[in-house]
Amino acid sequence: MRHRKSGVKLNRSSSHRKAMFRNMVTSLFKHDRIKTTDVKAKALRSWADHLVTLAKRGDLHARRQALAIIREKDVVHKLFEQAPTRFAGVSGGYTRIVKLGFRPGDAAPISIIELTGEAPVVEAAVKDKDKSGKEKDQSEKKDQPAADAAADKE
């Protein structure tokens, strides 16, 4: 009897299953959504929710625990930077699974797992600043190459 044994085996060894879910959760936080089978998406939900909970806690120990699962430092940094604001008012349910249909090759049920919450908007326009932190005038910028050329001739 298999009573009280949680988690799915997915016909893989424990090390293969652990490596697969670590790669999948890394891809999920890097791209905000991934396409996979229904069963894998449902199992991935618990991994992702656990990592978001760690990121909302935000201390050093939580960051090191997340780094033990996600091996890419920039993904962990992005998660710890965005999660406290993105999931501030929510206590669970950080992922959404949308069923897409069946895969053409083997008719496996396919779904998209994605992070809920508002994705933070990245500012596209970056203003030029000089070393003192002040914004440069456009007129200074236009005159500067001419001044550099004159200085080179001397």
Describe what you observe in this structure.
- With 154 residues, the chain is α+β, with helices and mostly antiparallel strands.
- The protein is built from 5 helices and 3 strands.
- Strands 1-3-2 form a 3-stranded antiparallel beta sheet.
- A hairpin with a 6-residue loop joins strand 2 (95-102) and strand 3.
Write the layout of secondary structure elements.
Elements: H1 14-31, E1 33-37, H2 38-57, H3 60-69, H4 73-86, E2 95-102, E3 109-115, H5 138-153
Antiparallel strand pairs: 1-3, 2-3
Brief characterization of the structure:
With 154 residues, the protein is α+β, with helices and mostly antiparallel strands.
Calculate the terminal CA-CA distance, rounded to whole Å.
89 Å
Q: State the helix count.
A: 5
Strand order of the largest sheet: 1-3-2
- Over the alpha carbons, how many angstroms does the gyration radius reach? 23 Å
Beta-strand residue percentage: 5-15%
What is the overall shape? Answer: globular
Give the overall average pLDDT. Answer: 86
